[in-house]
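W.,

You were right to be curious about this one. When I first looked at the sequence I had no strong expectations either way, so I just let the prediction run and decided to look at it fresh. Below is the sequence, 110 residues in total, followed by the output.
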Amino acid sequence: AKSRHNPAIAQIVNSLDRPLIISDEIPGRLLSFAHLLKPDVQLQLIGKTAAPKLSSGFSNVFLYRASDRLQQQIVASNSVTIEPAYDKGWLFKIVPRSLNSPRIKVISNK
């Protein structure tokens, strides 16, 4: 089942203030996830060539089923790390890198 984790992931995201979900997953796979989200959750779909700059207008920013390429682009073009937000994968939180932590961590979703 390609959407088996979506209800649990949606519950995590829906419980937070001003969440943004970034993904480069194919739109068809996002549909079953998107209908589980509250109306205030924003989705940002990224094309295969785009390297997004992160907006400061969101208090919680996540990657949903993001490719390794997208994860690496976000880490390289922003001062952030990526941490697991769901124990089965698929959802990763983008966290501002602290000044005392120079290490950048990219978590593969494979």
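Here's what jumped out at me. The radius of gyration is 13 Å. And, maybe more interesting for your project: The first strand starts at residue 19 and ends at 23.

Coffee later to discuss?

I.
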